[in-house]
Structure formats: C-alpha cells, structure tokens
Amino acid sequence: MDGQLDSDRASDVVTAIELAGLKHIKSGKVRELYESGENLLLVATDRVSAFDCILPNGIPGKGRLLTSISAFWFDFFHDLVPNHLIAWRGADFSPALDAWRSVLDGRSMEVRKTSPLPIECVVRGYLAGSGWKEYQKSGKVCGVALPAGLTNGDRLPEPVFTPATKAESGHDENISFEQAASMVDRELLEKVRDLSLEIFRRAHDFMLQRGLILADTKFEFGLYEGELMLIDEVLTPDSSRFWARHCHMPGAPFQYGFDKQIVRNYLETLDWDKTPPAPPLPDDLVQQVAEAYDFIHQILTRPV
Question: Where are the alpha helices (DSSP H) in the chain?
C-alpha cells in the first residue's frame, strides 16, 4: 500500500503517518510536511501538544477538524488577503497525489511554497495566558502599555498586535514590534500588523454573533513570488482561545472555552515539570477536547 496510516482503530486516532514515495520535509507538533512537485502538502495528524511537548495520546478527528476550519477561514478572508491553499479535498488534489487521495482527503492541504516570515503574528483582544502574566509584572504586553486595573479575562480597549518568535525547540518568545522589525522589513511588518488586526476584528465580530468570543489568536504569513499570503492554520482551537460569550467572567482564573486550553488547564493540575515525556490524557478529557473542537467546527460552518 502506497499510503499507510498508523492509527488506533478502536478510537480512530491518527498520530503518525507515512506516505511512501513522497519526499518528507519535516514533522511538526501536529503536522507532517511533504513535497508535492512544485507544491507542499501539509498533513494534519490527531496529535496534541502542550507546553512544547507532544502528548502520547491524540484527539479523535482533530486533524480533519483543524483542516476544515482553516479551509473555512481561508475562504472567508479571500477578499482581504491571498492565501496559500490550493486544495484540501481529495478530488481536488493535483495528479501527483493520486495514490493517496483517500488517505489525505479532509486532513491535508496542498499549498503553494511560500517563504514564511520568521515571526508569529499574535493578536490579543482580551487579557489571558502569557499576556496576563506579563501585564501583572509590567502593565504591558510585548511593549504595548495597557490601562491600569485590568484583570484576567478583561476585554482590551482595542486588539493589540504582539508578535512572537518561532522557536524550533522550546518556547516561542513574545517580542516587541521594534524587535520584530529587526527580523522583518518594517514596511512589510506594518502591513502584516494591519492585516492581522483586521482579520481578528472581522473574525471576532463574526464569532460574537454566534455566541463565541475570540480572545486571542496567532497568524502566519509568507511570501509567494513577492506576494504576501496568509499561510499555515487559521483561527483553529489549536491556535486560538475561543470562549463562550454568555459564560465570560473577567477575573475568574479560567474562562469556559472550546480550545486547547482545556488540555493545558488539566496538565497544570499535575505534578509534571513540563518536560518530555508528557503524561497521557485521561479518556474523559480526550472526549471533552474532541467535542469542543467539533463544536467550534459546527458553530463556524453552520448556515446563518
């Protein structure tokens, strides 16, 4: 068989993939990257990571949900910014992928080869996570001064652009706009900042109408033949914080949400030093995460 998936058939969890005959470029925490002629192939497994560690058990259906959600947003924003997506359905893949159409269908994206920018474009609309921790110490997030007296979970007066480094290993590091400007041409960085903020605002308003709060997220951009493109994944539960609008309680230690924070919150309760090997997730938590991701997918893609 040309395409072989290593999966737990009992729970239909794909944590590893091998596509014999395609050039494998690298493995990410969740995705496998292959070369497909002039294009690239991003294959989303069901792996889950937290604190830069891949956990031993995956989340059923996660890869397909992440792919479908990203495809939804790429289409949603196509009038605002070009993107690298060529196809994500098996029937639409190029002939070079004929042998693996059924294996790849729904969990893979055939994309253009871009030159990714060396920063992650983080936008925060609410105070949470590392932003909250930094604010408590300095009253700022990535060099951006915020009003005094804010609490965990508060909405910011305006969304803020807070770039971060892309770490090959270890943690991504929050950096200031000026630090980012030493890594990316300033004019290009300003364009990326403005695009990131506009994407966030449109997505936030769209989701608010559907009972969700987009608290923060991160985007990635790349250059293709000199054109700036939105790449990688977009506004998924792996890359964003999604909170239930009617359960929003500023000041509470946690907000009721539907994203990977569920996993982080659980791991914080364990006596684990956040270094490999990571502990397995209990079955009921795996189910909870799977249902949360599926819920986000349904909310986003349902007809108005």
Answer: 62-76, 101-104, 129-138, 177-181, 186-208, 261-268, 283-301
Residue environment code for 247-282, b if the CB has 16+ CB neighbours within 10 A, otherwise e: ebeeeeeebebbbbbbbeebbeeeeeeeeeebeebe
Range(s) of the domain holding residue 10: 3-113
Closest CA to 235 of 206, 264, 262, 267: 206
Q: How far apart are CA 258 and CA 274, in angstroms?
A: 22
Nearest Cα to 129, choosing from 107, 112, 109, 152? 152
What is the pLDDT at residue 169?
A: 57
Q: What is the pLDDT of residue 168?
A: 63
User: Are the CB atoms for 205 and 226 separated by under 8 Å?
Assistant: no
User: What's the token pair of residue 116?
Assistant: 């990714």
Asked whether residue 254 is domain-assigned, the answer is: yes
Please check whether residue 231 lies inside any domain of the structure.
yes
pLDDT along the chain (304 residues), means of 10: 35 87 94 95 97 95 97 98 97 94 94 98 96 95 94 97 81 89 98 98 98 98 98 98 98 96 96 96 97 98 82
User: Is the pTM for the entire model greater than 0.85?
Assistant: yes
Question: Going by DSSP bridges, is the β-strand pair 23-27/53-54 parallel, antiparallel, or unpaired?
Answer: unpaired
In total, the chain counts a number of residues equal to 304
Q: Are residues 79 and 183 in the same domain?
A: no
